[in-house]
Amino acid sequence: MVVWYNGGPGCSSMLGFTQEHGPFVMENGGVAFHKNDYTWNKEANMLYIESPAGVGFSYCNQTEACNYTDDDSAADNLAAILYFFNEKFPEYQSNDLYISGESYGGIYVPYASYYIHQYLESNKDNTTIYKPNLKGFIVGNGVTNWKYDTVPAFVEMGFWHGLYDLNTYEAMKKNNCTYYFAGSGADNSSETCAQLMTTFSNLVGDINVYDVYGKCYKSNMKSEAFELYSSSDMGMSKVSDSIKTYKKAATAADYTPFLYNHNKNSDSKRLKELPPCTFGEPIIEYLNNA
Fold first, then answer.
1. Which of 23, 26, 119, 239 is positioned for an S-S bond with 30, CB 3.0–4.6 A?
2. How far apart are CA 33 and CA 30, in angstroms?
3. pLDDT one-digit tens code per residue, 115-160
4. In this structure, are residues 209 and 154 in contact, taking their beta carbons and an 8 Å threshold?
5. Is the predicted pLDDT of residue 101 greater than 60, yes or no?
6. pLDDT score of 255
7. Is the model more confident about 237 or about 98?
8. How many other C-beta atoms lie within 10 A of the C-beta of residue 25?
């Protein structure tokens, strides 16, 4: 059994199912599904999980329940996997289990695997409950470290692929903008780096960041699905007798800030259904078809 998570955070795992390794796929620019000769279900039983709840075909009924940290998501994923094997399809209980994913799956996958491992360790002497046969995990193109992944990686790769000029690149280095671009846990007070990020975003705005040699697909979709910022993203702790705020969880804008408006006074910090230049309208229309 292989469990699959797409990334985001906030990307539906139906992307993997409909464009990557499902039994029928539609490539970029396509208008119809066709049989996939390389589908993963030729080798394993596949379970595609929408994570966190509220993404894709999944839902959560209460606003507070829709606010997540990586630990919350991992706990939910453990519960979902146990429910799958215990309540829905117990005939698969003897199968080996692998957890897999891509992009922000670099967080989802090891976190879920860790929670499963902890569950197994804490119940190793309990013979009355089901224990998954966890064998390993698989991560492709994973996000793991904000200092190097996502935006810093694209800024570096973009320069060496000639997507923007030497002066901008050298200014980024001179002003140590890597930590600004890293987003999560970074110093976001640098106006110079903010201006350089805007320059960079304008220069690469018509480039498909997932395939710089490919086509930039224009979307007609206007839906604005997810608020990026909320007070629930912040927590407080007591350090040396003083209260410090800290960030409990990062937003999509932290991981891919080049996709968003950097005007701090803007009310447009919302994630569209499709990232700029990416293909997917026919698939979304199909999945929304009754």
1. 26
2. 8
3. 999 999 999 999 999 999 999 999 999 998 878 888 889 999 999 9
4. yes
5. yes
6. 44
7. 98
8. 20
Q: Are strands 96-102 and 234-239 parallel, antiparallel or unpaired?
A: unpaired
Residues 6+ apart with CB under 8 A from 174: none
User: What's the pLDDT tens digit per position in 2-21?
Assistant: 999 998 888 899 999 999 99
From 188, 187, 152, 154, select the one nearest 173 (Cα to Cα): 152
Length in residues, the chain: 290
Domains for the chain: give ranges and CATH numbers. 2-140 (3.40.50.1820), 151-283 (no CATH)
Q: Which one has a higher pLDDT value, 50 or 273? A: 50
DSSP 175: T
Using alpha carbons, select from 113, 184, 189 the residue that is nearest to residue 152.
184
- Of the candidates 108, 97, 184, 95, the one whose C-alpha atom is nearest the C-alpha of residue 139 is 108
What is d(CA 124, CA 165) in angstroms, rounded to the nearest whole number? 57
Q: How far apart are CA 260 and CA 268, in angstroms?
A: 8
- From the list 289, 208, 287, 290, the residue with the least C-alpha distance to 24 is 287
* Amino acid (one-letter) located at 37: D
